[in-house]
C-alpha cells in the first residue's frame, strides 16, 4: 500500500509531513504551545494538514525539553522562526504560498513573527495566518519545570518577571502586556477561540477582532460555544472544517 502521508526533512530544521509526489504543495508552518515541541501536538496537527494536501512543517521553538519535559519559553529568538520560514519557502516541494498556524503560545508566536516582519518590511511575510486561542498581548516567560496547577498558592500560567521573546538580539520592545500589533498585517487572518477557555480568556480574541475591525482589517473569526482551551471532538471537527477551508482559499493554487 502506498503511503498517503510522507515525511521529508528540511536539512538543519526538521521534518515535514505532506502528500506523496513531487509537489509543489501549499505549505503551513505549525507552532506548538507551552506543551513544547516534544509533546507531539504540533506534529499531530501537521499530519491533519498533510492529509488534506498541504505540506506541513511543525516548528519546534521552545528551549530544551524532552519527551517528559516541555522545556521553556524564555528569551526565544523570533528571528529563528523567520529563518525557518525562509527555509520552508526554499524547500523544493513547497508551493508559492506559505501560511502560519499557531495555538495558544504558538498563536502568540505566529502573531508576533508576522507583525514584526511586516513592521521591518522583511521579505517572505506569511501569505495567511490562522491562530486558535491566542493572547492579544505579549505574555511573560513560561518554564514547564515550575508549572503548578490552578488553585495552588502562587499559581500563574506565565512569569511576568521574565521575557518570553527576543527580536534581533533584544527583548526591550517585547515586554509582557504590550499589545501585539497584528493589525499591521494586510493578509488573510483566521481567529478562533472557545468561549469557556480556562487558560486564555476568549476576551483576548474578541479584543483582537475589535482592534482589527477598528483598523479596517478583516478577519475570519469563529467562537466555539462552551468549549475549553482544547475543543471537544465535535467542536474540533468544526474547527478543522473552518481552518482547512481558510487555508484552501488562501494558499491553494
Structure keywords:
13 strands, three-stranded antiparallel β-sheet, Rossmann fold, 253 residues, single chain, 5 helices, globular, alpha/beta
Can you walk me through this structure?
The protein is α/β, with parallel strands linked by helices. The protein has one domain: 3-Layer(aba) Sandwich (Rossmann fold), CATH 3.40.50. The chain has five helices and 13 strands. The protein has a six-stranded parallel beta sheet with strand order 4-3-7-8-12-13, sandwiched between helices. Strand 3, helix 1 and strand 4 form a beta-alpha-beta unit. Helix 2 packs across helix 3. The chain is globular. The protein starts with 5 loop residues before the first strand and ends with a helix. The mean pLDDT is 93.
List SSEs in N-to-C order.
EEEHEEEHEHEEEEEHEH
Total number of β-strand segments? 13
- In terms of quaternary structure, the protein is single chain
The helix fraction, in percent, is 25-40%
Q: What form results from the Cα inertia axes?
A: globular
Amino acid at each position: 500500500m502506498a503511503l498517503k502521508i510522507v515525511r521529508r526533512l528540511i536539512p538543519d530544521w526538521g521534518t515535514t509531513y505532506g502528500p506523496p509526489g513531487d509537489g509543489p504543495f501549499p505549505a503551513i508552518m505549525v507552532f506548538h504551545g507551552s506543551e513544547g515541541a516534544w509533546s507531539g501536538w504540533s506534529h499531530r496537527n501537521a499530519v491533519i494538514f498533510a492529509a488534506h494536501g498541504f505540506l506541513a512543517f511543525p516548528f519546534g521553538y521552545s528551549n530544551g525539553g524532552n519527551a517528559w519535559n516541555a522545556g521553556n519559553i524564555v528569551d526565544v529568538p523570533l528571528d529563528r522562526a523567520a529563518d525557518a520560514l525562509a527555509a520552508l519557502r526554499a524547500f523544493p516541494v513547497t508551493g508559492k504560498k506559505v501560511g502560519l498556524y499557531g495555538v495558544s503560545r504558538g498563536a502568540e508566536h505566529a502573531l508576533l513573527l508576522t507583525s514584526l516582519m511586516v513592521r521591518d518590511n522583511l521579505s517572505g511575510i506569511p501569505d495567511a495566518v490562522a491562530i486558535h486561542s491566542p493572547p492579544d498581548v505579549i505574555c511573560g516567560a513560561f518554564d514547564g519545570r515550575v508549572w503548578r496547577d490552578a488553585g495552588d498558592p502562587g499559581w500563574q500560567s506565565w512569569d511576568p518577571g521574565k521575557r518570553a521573546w527576543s527580536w534581533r538580539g533584544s527583548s526591550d520592545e517585547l515586554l509582557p502586556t504590550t499589545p501585539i500589533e497584528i493589525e499591521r498585517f494586510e493578509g488573510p487572518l483566521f481567529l478562533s477561540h472557545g468561549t469557556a477557555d480556562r487558560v486564555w480568556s476568549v476576551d483576548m480574541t474578541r479584543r483582537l477582532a475589535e482592534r482589527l475591525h477598528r483598523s479596517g482589517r478583516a478577519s475570519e473569526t469563529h467562537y466555539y460555544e462552551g468549549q475549553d482551551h482544547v475543543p471537544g471532538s465535535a467542536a474540533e471537527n468544526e474547527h478543522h472544517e473552518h481552518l482547512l477551508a481558510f487555508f484552501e482559499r488562501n494558499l491553494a493554487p
